[in-house]
């Protein structure tokens, strides 16, 4: 292999595929990136056997070839090279790779590309196209509510459901649930559960994309094709919970508040709430005021937020982290808290929008 490539292009490509590099693996070769040069493209591939990412970058090829190199080493070196400079890569005998750029040079001992797992990125199944902006919103509004660890692995994923030309993403962890809907131009039906960590990597890549994303769903895998990158992931096995059955509308209290006001107040109150295992803050809603309290052995915080209230006065406790996760992703100026009672779930949505519901369970106040 003998190629010339722009540092910015190479650095961007390495950053994209590094997300799939396996940190702890019985297969040492999976800690590397497969680098292939052919058809005037530099193709970088990484996989941990659950998640795979392949990305293409234009380059000048003098000699085609392939090699596997340690991901962290090449990533750290290329990142520290001067921006917009040209990088010259050449492979030698015995899987040695030489990288030159201006006055810098490094030699890396790699592995044969033939030892790398033959991870196919040709996922055959039902395909549909979605606007990248739409996909970004679906992921951004939901992925954080999936479980980090759970005795039921299904809850570490997000449900992707399509029916009646609407795409719905659902994530829950037993304490809160996020449901986001967006219209899509697809007449078929889909119902799969994708690992939340996969969606987080897609969110990072799709944020810079203006083009549409092609999603293909097979029995065991889902793939996302956007611009010069393909991401493929295993699906999670199991039956997802009936999320529609969780959503209620028998509210006793409805509260409308300015998003910025309540977010700032909850953030300040959460500074003391962190000393409590439940991150407990208490909302005391009365007339046109919502008092937000938290206390610990170091002191207490009291915040007051002007609100519009319908229904009964209410005093209810929440985990401040669960409220802040929601408040940090939404863009609307006002939110509506729909409350059933002090021991029942709270359903929050943006004013004037029915396409996003965030449910959070209360914490019992002693």
Structure notes:
It is a single chain. Strand 15 and strand 16 (221-226) form a beta hairpin. The protein folds into three domains: 2-115, DNA Polymerase III, subunit A, domain 2 (DNA Polymerase III, Chain A, domain 2, Roll); 126-245, Roll (DNA Polymerase III, Chain A, domain 2); 248-360, Roll (DNA Polymerase III, Chain A, domain 2), CATH 3.10.150. The strands form three sheets. It has a twelve-stranded antiparallel beta sheet with strand order 14-11-12-13-25-24-23-18-21-20-19-22. The protein has an eight-stranded antiparallel beta sheet with strand order 6-2-3-4-17-16-15-10. It has seven helices and 25 strands. The chain has 366 residues and is an alpha+beta fold. Helix 3 packs across helix 4 and helix 6 (259-273) runs antiparallel to helix 7.
Topology:
Blueprint: E1 2-6, H1 7-17, E2 32-38, E3 41-47, E4 51-58, E5 60-63, E6 65-70, H2 71-79, E7 86-91, E8 96-101, E9 104-109, E10 126-130, H3 132-140, E11 157-163, E12 166-172, E13 176-183, E14 190-195, H4 196-206, E15 213-217, E16 221-226, E17 229-234, H5 243-246, E18 253-258, H6 259-273, E19 280-286, E20 289-296, E21 299-311, E22 314-319, H7 320-327, E23 334-339, E24 346-350, E25 356-360
Antiparallel strand pairs: 1-5, 1-7, 2-3, 2-6, 3-4, 4-17, 7-8, 8-9, 10-15, 11-12, 11-14, 12-13, 13-25, 15-16, 16-17, 18-21, 18-23, 19-20, 19-22, 20-21, 23-24, 24-25
Helix pairs in contact: 1-2, 3-4, 6-7
């Amino acid at each position: 292999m003998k190629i010339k490539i722009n540092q910015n292009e190479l650095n961007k490509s390495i950053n994209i595929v590094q997300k799939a590099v396996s940190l702890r693996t019985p297969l040492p070769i999976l800690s590397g990136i497969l680098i292939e040069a052919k058809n005037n493209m530099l193709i970088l591939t990484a996989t941990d056997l659950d998640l795979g990412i392949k990305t293409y970058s234009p380059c000048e090829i003098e000699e085609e070839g392939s090699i596997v190199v340690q991901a962290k080493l090449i990533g750290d070196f290329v990142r520290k090279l001067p921006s917009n400079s040209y990088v010259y890569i050449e492979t030698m005998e015995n899987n040695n790779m030489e990288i030159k750029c201006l006055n810098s040079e490094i030699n890396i001992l790699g592995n044969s590309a033939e030892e790398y797992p033959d991870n196919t990125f040709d996922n055959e199944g039902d395909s549909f196209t979605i606007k990248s902006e739409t996909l970004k919103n679906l992921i951004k509004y939901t992925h954080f509510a999936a479980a980090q660890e759970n005795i039921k692995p299904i809850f570490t994923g997000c449900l992707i459901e399509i029916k009646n030309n609407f795409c719905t993403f659902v994530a829950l962890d037993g304490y809160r649930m996020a449901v986001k809907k967006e219209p899509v131009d697809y007449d078929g039906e889909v119902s799969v559960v994708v690992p939340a960590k996969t969606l987080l990597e897609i969110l990072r890549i799709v944020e810079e994309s203006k083009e549409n994303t092609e999603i293909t769903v097979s029995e065991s895998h889902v793939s996302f094709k956007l611009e010069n990158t393909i991401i493929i992931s295993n699906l999670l096995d199991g039956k997802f919970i009936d999320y529609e059955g969780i959503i209620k509308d028998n509210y006793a209290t409805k509260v409308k508040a300015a998003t910025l006001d309540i977010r700032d107040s909850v953030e300040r109150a959460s500074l003391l709430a962190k000393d409590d295992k439940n991150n407990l803050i208490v909302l005391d809603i009365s007339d046109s005021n919502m008092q937000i309290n938290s206390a610990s052995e170091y002191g207490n915080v009291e915040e007051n937020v002007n609100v519009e209230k319908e229904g009964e006065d209410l005093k209810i406790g929440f985990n401040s982290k669960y409220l802040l996760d929601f408040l940090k992703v939404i863009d609307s100026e006002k939110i509506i808290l729909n409350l059933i009672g002090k021991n029942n779930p709270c359903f929050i949505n943006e004013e004037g929008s029915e396409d996003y519901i965030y449910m959070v369970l209360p914490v019992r106040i002693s």
